[in-house]
Design a protein that fits this description.
globular, 13% strand, 8 strands, 12 helices, alpha+beta, Serine Threonine Protein Phosphatase 5, Tetratricopeptide repeat, 3 domains, 332 residues, two-stranded antiparallel ribbon, six-stranded mixed sheet
Length: 332
């Protein structure tokens, strides 16, 4: 069941023809777009209307690829809702994507919305995950649209305080993506001042540091990143950014120590919000392999270099070039 909220091309016809060709029951009801929470809730009610005998509904957008692991078994599903991991080019996070059809689920939020259901039990499912291509057709005006929706949500007196805090966070994110770094810093600080979910508060502090670095205010950036690490030492993203900064200034000893701290910490298993996959997969090892050589810690650098070599085919081309260049320094 696909709810169309205002397409201007022939996608409705294409969907129906695809369903007929593949002998798959397919409905395409039409509804007006007000905001994302409203439209997604409408799509759920439409699914209940057209497919009342379904046990679960899978929630996917057109630019999301569902990856099914070998041990997937629908008969093992017992909870009202399931979070699954969603992987973009950089971030990994959990998202509700499988919901029991018989429950009263509602999608909340004007944008960057989330699903909720009173009294529901939820679990994390590892046998499905989403490869997020992030290239949907509605993305051309994404940031200006999100900014408008979020400001409307904040201004609405009926918006609950906790939801306004979420809107503040994503307004800061929107400003950051639009490269309006001064506004993003202001909004991240407002989100920090509100308090609440510790991961979102911490991520706001991290983003303040990144915004300063991106706007050529490195001293303020390093200070903000150190504050982020001090608040949540299990997250190594700020350490990797600082290590890279000092390496590029040829201050390899300082860079090495920050990279080593990051490496020793490992992956933040308990966290779920916007974990930067490249940081933990290869960026920390890249910093360690380069800086270790220049400070006489070749054995440590060699181990990092080996780890990078072991995942060479999965690395971006620019990292592969760095690894190739470092081969002459490490005969290990």
């Amino acid at each position: 069941c696909i709810t169309d909220t205002g397409s201007t091309d022939n996608c409705i016809e294409c969907i129906r023809k695809w369903g007929e060709k593949n002998e798959i029951p397919c409905q395409v009801p039409v509804g007006a777009f007000k905001n994302f929470g409203y439209s997604r809730s409408l799509s759920f009610r439409n699914a209940q209307r057209y497919f009342p005998n379904a046990s679960y509904y899978l929630l996917l957008d057109a630019d999301l690829n569902l990856v099914i692991e070998d041990d997937w078994d629908i008969s093992k599903l017992t909870h009202d809702g399931y979070k699954i991991y969603q992987q973009t080019k950089t971030d990994r996070y959990q998202n509700i994507r499988l919901i029991k059809a018989s429950k009263s689920w509602v999608c909340t939020g004007v944008t960057h919305e989330y699903w909720e259901c009173k009294g529901s039990n939820q679990s994390l499912l590892h046998t499905l995950w989403i490869d997020d291509k992030d290239d949907g057709g509605c993305k051309q005006d994404k940031y200006s649209r999100d900014k408008r929706l979020l400001l409307e949500g904040i201004a609405n007196k009926k918006t609950p305080k906790d939801l306004k805090a979420r809107y503040r966070f994503y307004l800061a994110q929107t400003h950051f993506c639009m490269k309006d770094f001064n506004s993003s810093i202001e909004e991240y600080q407002r989100r920090i001042d509100i308090g609440g979910w510790d991961e979102e508060v911490w991520y706001s502090q991290l983003q303040i540091g990144k915004a300063y670095m991106a706007s050529d205010r490195q001293e303020l950036g390093v200070a903000a990143l150190l504050k982020a690490w001090d608040k949540r030492p299990l997250r190594s993203e700020p350490l990797q950014i600082i290590a890279k900064y000092y390496r590029e200034k040829s201050m390899n000893r300082i860079a090495f120590h920050f990279a080593k701290l990051a490496s020793d910490q490992g992956y933040p298993m308990g966290d779920s919000l916007f974990i930067d996959s490249p940081t933990y997969t290869y960026l920390i090892d890249l910093e360690l392999s380069i800086n270790a050589f220049y400070v006489g810690k070749k054995e440590i650098g060699c181990q990092s270099h080996k780890r990078l070599k072991s995942i060479y085919k999965e690395l971006p081309s620019w990292v592969q070039s760095c690894v190739d260049n470092n081969d002459k320094f490490y005969l290990c």
